[in-house]
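notes to self, project folder thing:

trying the whole complex as one job this time. last attempt i did each chain seperately and stitching them together was a nightmare. two parts in total, labels are on each line so i dont mix them up again. if this works i'll redo the older ones the same way
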Amino acid sequence: MKPLRLEMTAFGPFAGKEVVDFRDLRGARLFLIHGDTGAGKSTILDGICTALYGVSAGGERTPEQLRSDHADPDTMTELQLDFAIGDACYRVQRFPAQERPKKRGEGVILENASATLWRLASDQPGAAVVEVLAERKVSTVLERVHELIGFEVAQFRRVVVLPQGQFRDLLSAGAKEREDILRALFDTAAYSRAEQDLKRRASALKRDIDDRGARREGLLSSEGVVTHDELLAKIEGKQRAQRVLSAEAKQAADAAAACERMLEQGKQRHARFQQRDDAEDARARLAAEAESVEAERQRHLHGTEALGLVPAYDALQGAKKKRAERTDKRDRAAAEAKTRLAEVERAREAAGAAAEERAKRDERQGEYERLDKLAGFAREWARRVTAREKAERGLDAAVASKASAETARDSAQTALAVLDAELLALADSPAQLAEAEAEVKATAARLAQHQQAAALTEAVRKLSEARDRAEAQCARAQAALDTATVTVRALQTAMRVGRAAILAQELEPGQPCPVCGSAEHPAPAGGHEQLPSDEDLAAAEKAQGEAQAALTTAQQALTAAAATLDAKRELQAAQLAALDGESLPAAEQRAQHAVQLRDTALARTRRRAEAQTQRAGLASAEAEARKAYEEARDAETVARNQQQEAEKEEAAALALLGGEPQDPEDLSARAAALQTLLRTAEAAHEAAQAVLQQAETEHTKSTSAETAAVDELAAAQAEVDAAERAWAEALQASPFTDEAGFTAARMSKEALAQNHARVRAHEDALKEVQARLTALDAELAGQARPQLDTLEAAAQRAREDSQRATKRQGEEANSLERARQVCADYEAAQQAVAALEQRYLLVDGLAKVANGTNSAKINLHRFVLASFLDEVLLQASQHLAKTSRGRYRLVRRTTQGDGRTAQGLDLDIDDHYTGEQRPATTLSGGEGFLAALALALGLADVVQAHFGGIRIETVFVDEGFGSLDAETLDLAVETLLELQQTGRMVGVISHVSELKERIDVQLEVTKHERGSRTRFRLPGYRVS
Amino acid sequence: MRFIHTSDWHLGKVLHQRSLLEDQQHALAQLYAILKDTQPDALLIAGDIYDRSVPPGDAVCVLDDFLARVSLDLALPVVMIAGNHDSAERIGFGARLMADRRVCIAGPMTAELPTLTLTDAHGPVVFHPLPYADPATVQLAQPYEDPRTHQRAMQALVAQAHARTPAGTRSVCVAHAFVQGGTESESERPLSVGGSGQVEPSVFDGFHYVALGHLHRPQDAGRPELRYSGSLLKYSFSEAEHQKGVSLVELNATGAATVQHLPITPKRDLMRVEGTLEELLSQPDPAAKQAYLQVLLTDKGALLDPMAKLRAVYPHVLDLRRSAFLDVADPSLPTRDAVRGSKVQLFADFYSEVGGGTLSDEQRAVLAEVFTSVQAEEDAP
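result (full assembly):
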């Protein structure tokens, strides 16, 4: 994993957005991150770690705590890292859980952590996003990051980022902790799981074996025995018993069989006897029947004879029948004819009636027309009545509207008059208003004057005060001048005196005096001590001058003030005169009064204007009302005319009706009825005619039918006669005396045949029975009838005995079978258990060894870890040998412990100088750092070798160099330089200045007021 | 014109936690004696004056003392440049002040480097000190074309030097570089990662003598006029066989140079000895007893407290090595990929390690099952 670009916003000491673009290194691989304490060097590592895993590098600060204090509350803490793994480039963006101010309303809301992972197109700046690999959910992103990088954060912190103060963890950790670290790094969980799996299998096998053992016991106890041998003995016993029982059963079965046979025989004989009895009965029966059979035979004879007569008889019967039929037919035809005749009569009558009816036609038609016309008149009259009524209504309406129009006109006129009167009254209001206004102005002006006067008075007062002050000032100035003058004179005097005194001092007796030239000096001037200087005098004179000036000024001021005052006083006097004695309150009152008057006038003027407007309106309204009235009157006249017209017409129509109002509906109805009647009569007549026609036809037909039927009857009669003659002949020829005899003897052919058969059958049966009887007699001669009951009973008993014996035998056999089965199961189980036990021994053996029960007292998992650790130490020792100048090697303690839990992962240092091993924790600070660094590098080598997909392309080392002396520092730096040559990027955080000299590619982190900044410095380049 | 050429003093160096300052003072005293005796016209010090960019205070005192005595007592002109171990700015402190006394110090890389011109019977000789700087720094001061290599940088500097030398004048260059063909020792700090720090000998063509510093073995770099004087003392055990000293150079009228190596004996020599502990303890070499020693013990087995025992006999043992451990040649990582694939095999190793013997086939079968089911558990989410 190689970082390309880290962007941190509001993170740690970086208040805003800070970008560290590792591409600015331009291919340099070893670089130093330096800066003041707290500037944010370790934060860069935290940034990388947090962006990838959501956890800081050192693990002491949670991502939430890493939010920058300087940041705006609106700026979200955000981390974004572009990184490359081999040729593929990715970007991860993470927002740790943080509070942000609500967008609406007061307060903060806790925003949950979220993260997103993308794949980028290339490792160049500004590369495009190719696809989204995981979105929003922190856990999914973490998973993908694990997959891509191959490390979890714990491993990352040991191998890629060596956090401040923590790289010693692996070195100085207790063996248990080291185990955890290594286990996480090398993912050896499979081995500890294998240990447990073996244990589980062993115990499962054990349980299985025990179960089976229990079951075997169960099997035995189900047979009521305790050991296998007992079972076998039991089986033996059962077998013997079995044999005895089967013999018994066999015996009983034989006995039963014999009885059965006897019974059988008895039954047979019994049956035979039975048969004979039956035969005897049969013969008796047959004998009884002999008589009837004879009768049958006689009948048969007769029947044969009768058969010959049958045709003639039948013929006769047939002819009779025909005749009867024909008679019927003739009767019917006659009846028919009669009916038809009656119908004809009826039809004739009906037709006559209809014709009569029809004759009334013309009369009716005339009536109809008259009614029709009348109806028309009536309708007209009704219409006119309606029209007249309407006209009347119109007239009423017109009258009414005229009346209202009149009222309206009148009221309009009244209103107008009123308004006019008012206007007249208000005519003078404009003039009044003007007057009032003028008055108001005047009084206002007056008022102003009063105010002015007051102001002037005030001014006068002030000015007089001023003048008084000026006077006083003058006086003071004068006094000052006097004082100054006095001073000056005094000084002058003093000087004079003093000068003289000075001169006097220098007088020497005999020397001429500079003043007067005298050589004698009887009374020299004294008092030379206090000689005022020229300067003093000058000053005093100056003061005097100043005082004079001051006085002059004051006097001038006074004059001015007095003049001003006088002027003002004049003005005031003039003002007062103008007011001629009127007081202010009076003026005010007058002003108020004037205003009131003016307001009234104003109101009146307004009212006038309003009234004028109103009048205009009213005038037009009145004119309209008048017009309306005119129109209404005209309308009334028109309506009246209409009404009279309508009356006339109505009268005319009534005359047509003959003076009698009649209902037109009634008339039309009657006319219609007549019409219908006419039509009906016509139709009836025609129908009656048709019916008559029909009836006559029918009648003719029926008469002819009747005639035919009579003829047929005659024919039939002739036939009957002939047949009778034939029958009489035949009867005579026969043995029968009369017809009755014949009828009695007559039988159908089938009956004859049956009769014959019956007779024959009887004869045969009799013969057969006879024969049987003879035979049976012969057979059963000399034999006794058997006693079936006794035989039955005996046989039954024998059967029962046999059954019991068999059952006993069967039971015993079952029991034996069960016992055998149990024995077999037991033995099978025995074998299975043996196999299982073998397997158990195998698995248990492995499990025990794997779990630490072995001569080295180390379990599999830790052994694997130990072997990994050996590899790591081998690599680490190479690095350490270099930096310790061949003195130290890292080894794993292999001496036996005292059997406590954590074994085999302790680290020792092999010191060549002493030839001894001692614990790694005994190294000094600097040595420890070198050892830890070597260990981390060794770890990285081994991890990379084993987890081939993981490429450790970057290593960050956070501090630790401060504990090294100069020489060791050199060696450490050389180690780091060598690391570069393996292609890795190495970032070192240190404040050691020596490193600043040695490593010229630097990332500088500086503190500013509002957070920190980073900047790459390359020799010869300036990169911000 | 005669001058002494020396370099790579590394004042203040600490070797295996032993400060060599006393020894360095001793050597400098010898150098002073040589200067006094030979009375050259100048002293050239070609860089790596100190061992570190911020040297210890007493080292600074030593240099101060020496330079003061050389310039004030002997009135000898000195040309000194900063090397890659030095901090150029610190070396260059006071250079302009000292220039009046003909102590020409070139520390930081500037657009125009100082020069020193001395005159002898045959005319002037111009000395061009070219301090060490990495190519990027040279580029800032005296721009040249890319690529930024030591070779190109040196070309630029040399070109400028030649430009400022009047035609026909003898010129001497004092430079600190790694010239191709030279032999390194352990104690030189590499000039660059990845080997772009070397320059070709031809880059110095045009100078009559080039006084080089950086490599600690006294040697020529292609021709006798292109010379490393070597370091003042042995600074690593790889230099145990070197003859340390300074070079006395004479330039004749035409500028042909003759070189003579003047040895300097150290206060305490640096030696390497080898043998079993037994041998070394029983038959000590008297010379070794006094020297700074690196001991290589050839014993195969474990030894109890060898360092203490050796120090009892050889009080100045600095470094102890064991040949047995050195034989462990670079162990390539045993590819446990085979193991990764066969956890069963690893178990077998474990089993035999803890005294269980070898695994039978049934046992292997059981283990294979176990590992498969464990793997299945892992894979099933």
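what i see at first glance: Residues 146 and 152 of chain B are 8 Å apart (CA to CA).
need to look closer tmrw
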